From TrEMBL:
It catalyses: ATP + protein L-histidine = ADP + protein N-phospho-L-histidine. The gene is regM. SMART domains: HATPase_c, HisKA. This is histidine kinase. Residues 215-242 form a coiled coil. It comes from Aliiroseovarius zhejiangensis. The keyword Transmembrane helix applies. Residues 248-458 form the Histidine kinase domain. CDD domains: HATPase. Its EC number is 2.7.13.3. Keywords: ATP-binding, Coiled coil, Kinase, Membrane, Nucleotide-binding, Phosphoprotein, Transferase, Transmembrane, Transmembrane helix, Two-component regulatory system. The keyword Ribosomal protein does not apply. It comes from the Bacteria. The lineage of its organism: Bacteria, Pseudomonadati, Pseudomonadota, Alphaproteobacteria, Rhodobacterales. It is an enzyme of class 2 (transferase).
Amino acid sequence: MFNTLSGRFLILTTLFVMLAEVLIFVPSVARFREDYLRTRLERAQIASLVLLADDMIAPELEAELLENAEVYNVVLRRDEVRELMLASPMPQPVDKSFDLRQSTPFSLIRDAMARLFTPEPEVIRVIGDPVREGGLVIEITMMTGKLRSAMLEYGRNIFYLSAVISVITAGLLFVAVRSLMVRPIKRVVGNMKDYAIDPEDARRIIQPSTNVTELREAELALKSLQTDLTGALKQKERLAQLGGAVARISHDLRNILTTAQLFADRMESSKDPMVKRVGPKLVNSIQRAVSLCENTLTFGKAEEPAPSLGWVVLADLAGDIFDSERLAAGDHDVSFAEDIPTGMTLRADPEQLYRILSNLVRNARQAIVATGKPGEIAVQATETKDDWQIRVADTGPGLPKPTQDHLFQPFAGTNRRGGSGLGLAIAAELARGHGGTLALEKTGPDGTTFILTLPKEVAHAD
């Protein structure tokens, strides 16, 4: 129980209430001592009134009066005359004197604590004002034994009362904390354990129910986290299923493309000029498709294989991409331009670089065709001492804000109907494999520009 939140709260509440009672006890016991001394002054004054009524009283009566007042002698100052009214033998000389007329809260507390921690009885003189103007000053001498006993009895009563109040208060707070905090927290913990059993089951997602603001915020945050996690797990499952399907399709497609490659090889012996011009490009395209299928079957994972670096003539690579995209554009008014320094070569995997730029150019062409308006796609390359920078720009309609937020995420970075959202994600992963980056440089109504940066250092292209 003491290791639980409610149990510790119970203990702390009891301790804090007891501490508060101690802070109350100190001034209250000082007040009790003052009242005790003033009561003895009043009793002594009453006893002295007997002597004022009759100048001569029997010694036995005088002793009885002093005993009832619990004092040894009484001195009363009246009309500027200090007179010993009642007297009896004292067991010892006066040890201390206390003037209640000049006492302060601090001095009362100090004297009370000193009396509690001084077990030896003492004879003290107490000076105060008489009640009902019965004189100017009244003084008494008394033993402190009964005073200290009365103060200890009062302290015990205060302690018992404080203990009862502490237990009752802590019990009420214990019940309140269990109902307002512990139970909702246990409910959240129970939901987390239940959700962990089957996180893909949306029925296990927590439904916020508490009215406590802080706990409700925690429940809402947990609900959002569980919702996102459930969606991610479902997407992961779909991706796994898709991966299996792609592997099977790639296997069959590789066989089909292999047959097509055999027929394409025979086209090279044709004497038709058109066939001679188009045949090599067709063979190259089929070879790339076969290589892609084989990589998919061999790798079988979400990431791409490490690039096989070599020197690539960028202008030739861009020319092959433009030729393919011109055929795909058909009758649509899409022009292609390149601004690549003559003979510029860069160190990259030719197949992977082709896939990166092909994805970018294809997306640009599809965006322009979708508008039904003329447009242009340009590839520009620059070189610094540290890297190569390739920009692919188009005059299309630009990318909407939701697409920009998830641009390089699989199945999320597309706004084109029928698009899978994989092209840019694959291109970005291939760029990272070279130690480079693929980023959106700008987009808007006047077009979109992507920038591919490839480092020259081989160490960054592992």
